[in-house]
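Supplementary Methods, section 5.1.

A reviewer requested that the exact input to the structure prediction be made available. We therefore reproduce it here, unchanged from the version used in the analyses.
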Amino acid sequence: MAVDVQTEIVIGVPRDVVAEYTIDPSRAPEWYANIESVEWKTPPPLADHAHRRRPVPMETTNTFTAHGSTGTHMTLRNRGEPKGFSAISAPLMAAAMRRPTARTWLL
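The structure derived from this sequence is encoded token-by-token as follows.
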């Protein structure tokens, strides 16, 4: 069963600030509820199409659109194809992915 979850949030901070903050993997535990910690396996910065070790291979896409004069509309999409035992928990995984932007923004 494929997992394809998209969440959206409007943040009262300019687009460039939100984008810079959220694309830094070191900051992910501060705002993404599903990530507890980050350990770099290679020196930063993260390169395009870099691989992150996850139990299930996922593609994550962030988009940032200006919202009014000072806000940002952020869309976060996670999609992947769980295999083996992970496929059984795909519905629970999808439900958990819908919560990632629920943490308080510390910008």
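Residues 102-107 have pLDDT under 50 and may be disordered. These observations are discussed further in the main text.
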